[in-house]
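Reproducibility note. Readers wishing to regenerate the assembly model reported in the main text can use the exact inputs given here. Chain order matters: entities are listed in the order in which they were concatenated for prediction.
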Amino acid sequence: MTGRDRDWVFTGRARVFADDDINTDQIMPRRGFELPPEEQSALVLDSIRPGWAATVRSGDILVAGRRFGCGSSRPAPLVLARTGIAAVVAESLGDIFLRNAVAYAVPVLEAPGVLGAVSEGDELDVDIARGAVTNLTTGSAVSATPLPPMLLDTIAAGGVHALLRRDGYLAPIG
Amino acid sequence: MTMAEKVLARRSGRTVVRPGDIVVTDVDLIVLADTVFSDTPDTLPTDLLGVAHPERIVVLMDHGVPAPNERYARAQRRAREHARRLGFREVADVGGGGIEHQLIFERCLALPGQLVASNDSHTSAAGVLNCAARGLGLADILQLAATGRTWYRASPTVRFELVGELPFGVYGKDVFLHLSLLHGSQEGHDIEFGGPGLETMPLDDRATLATMCTELNANFVMMPDDALLREHIASVTDAAYEPVEPDPDAEYAAVHVVDLADVKPRIALPHRINGNVRSAAAVAADGIRIDQAFIGSCANGKLSDLRIAARLLDGRRVADGVRLIVTPGSQAVYLEALRAGYIETLTEAGAVVTNSTCGACAGGHLGVLAPGEVCITSSTRNFRGRMGSADAEIYLASTATVAASAIEGVIADPMPHLADRPIS
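Running the prediction on these inputs yields the following structure tokens for the assembly.
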């Protein structure tokens, strides 16, 4: 199955961080670098909202401001996804964050105007292949430029590591 | 086409590249920092079984050198093992290397017109060499090393046309802070520099500016090839290269003329740079006490930085209660500074001169901050928690401003200090 054939709609509860310029040091703090994955994910966005990661329900959708994930190239999307966040919709994304999201198979969408259409806790429908965000709570909608097929293919394959294992560049797990 | 579009076209076999195009390319140089080989948070295996072009791959140990803990030691061991087994072009190891971006520049590991990829976000630094260079994520770098190919979404370009000359006491770091103040974040865009003002800037200052454009959230950062650059390259290698220059009809999202005469010493206040820059004179009026001053990083660990610091601290002392840490950008910078007497001068003044490493800038070792501490740094980022505690405050400025502050014990305007002792 290629990325084009898959259903790319995510339905979940909006978790809103309206600040611009939330950087990868805040998403994936240095003090978590040497912790096991679950302890590392507990620190996600902790400097902005202490204890926030523990409040994420699996399937929640992160709604963020401009340049979300700017800064260092650390694999922040992966650590963020481990909190249970199913997709990220932002006014705009840091470029390396966007690449990392694709590489670690984390669904993302840049949807300018999304902050104006979504409040914390709203139920959202996000279609990353069509580029559409629908607020099921209020009925409002925001359209966006979808991810191109090549990048959807990478996400559908389970990310870059999965592709490299498939093609014999990395040893299989186990 | 712009300079970056031309490089992408060249490496993707296309005649034209336009903003928004997704192009699949190979690259001329892949730089892997020691961080590539760290235990990954997901424990995904990253042991590569093969690479497409080992002669295009170099491994540079910089983030934690010498290894401050077992995690770094394991990463560096894996890096050496990969380089040996797969036959990489070069390993710059402890004792023979330094910070990646400084090494690329001083050893001309890449040449004008080339495409450079690395896992480090400050890779735009190589723009000073007329290279299209930017940081990719770890997974992308693994994929590129393995398959020899990666992808880029071509960005629209903002051009900064520099005119005039840098005033006395003003450096590349101040030019960057000035651009941040005037024009703010350029996310989603490439930056292209040009104009007669750029040609008047020393290469070290250009390199600082290219490095810091990562903090404007820029993608590729291109500077033209000129006589000064060609002279530097000729002193290192006689390899042939094909520089790129923009076409007369290149399309820009914006063109900003910036007069270097307007640049003053400037400081970014804690926790972010863009939208948070004031003049050093204004901040100095607040009398902000500091605990630590740091000079170093890929932006400002150059020989000229150590020269400025030594000149200002010659015969003076670091203020009581202040720690001044100076971390050269490379072993070569360290050696040159040693020969020139800068390290002796700095040590006499009460500074600690460390080996070359990312060190305090990356927050891993050699100058980590405690809660409540205030640091002024000439490094690359002042994010909360960047240099240790999330409850520390980081001010960011030029090396001259940092050195002046270390002497006064409070955040200072470097101008009075510089006026006393002009730096050749």
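We highlight two features of this model. Chain A has one domain: 9-146. The CA atoms of residues 56 and 84 of chain A lie 6 Å apart.
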